[in-house]
């Protein structure tokens, strides 16, 4: 099984333009994500897929591998699929360019889901983490996920799920973390699926995969640090980095 990690990188982020070129510990965010994935030694190929010569040159000039996407893309899945269709790998991981603290443990767990899927019935793998803070449970910017007894995603939502009707039952709410592993054929399918009503309503891309019958296996993980979407997130990431936790 040949495995690649592709990092979609869009320069003109809507909420925080140019964020991937901001620095954490004297390295740009995008370079840190790339080098973190290389350091895991889990992948046969690691590359950044970008729409900007600034990001492309940042990776290439530091000895890395990068591709320029040739057309505009609405999301990272579509961006990496453009490159993946011409690459000879069985599994493709989509690691967001604004996730500088993703660690080897969770990537290993996700890979194991494919290794142990002998019937090859799982299309996609992705992580989730237990939410303990009430504020996060009720935050619509935090995507939640529920699974069946086999660890397969049943639904994703911006609302708290499951609903707490029976207060005598232990309540567990899980946050979805936006890292995906795809079988190649699943990636190419996912990138070409038409929009669906639930996806359009919640604005959560992976709902569309479920609506089209794709199987997503989830792996529980501890905190993945901070996704950098805003300048405030960057300040928190700098504090986390300086604390020595990552």
Give an overview in words.
The protein is α/β, with parallel strands linked by helices and 246 residues long. It folds into 2 domains: 1-98, Alpha-Beta Complex (Spore Coat Polysaccharide Biosynthesis Protein SpsA, Chain A), CATH 3.90.550; 104-223, Alpha-Beta Complex (Spore Coat Polysaccharide Biosynthesis Protein SpsA, Chain A), CATH 3.90.550.10. Helix content is 32%, strand content 22%. It contains 9 helices and 12 strands. The chain has helices at 29-40, 53-60, 76-84, 104-115, 134-137, 184-190, 197-202, 205-211, 231-243; strands at 3-9, 23-24, 27-28, 45-50, 66-68, 91-94, 124-131, 144-147, 153-157, 173-176, 180-183, 216-220. Strands 1, 4, 5, 6, 7, 8, 9, 10, 11 and 12 form a 10-stranded mixed β-sheet that branches. Strand 8 and strand 9 form a beta hairpin. Helix 3 (76-84) packs across helix 6 (184-190). The radius of gyration is 18 Å and the shape is globular. The protein starts with a strand and ends with a helix.
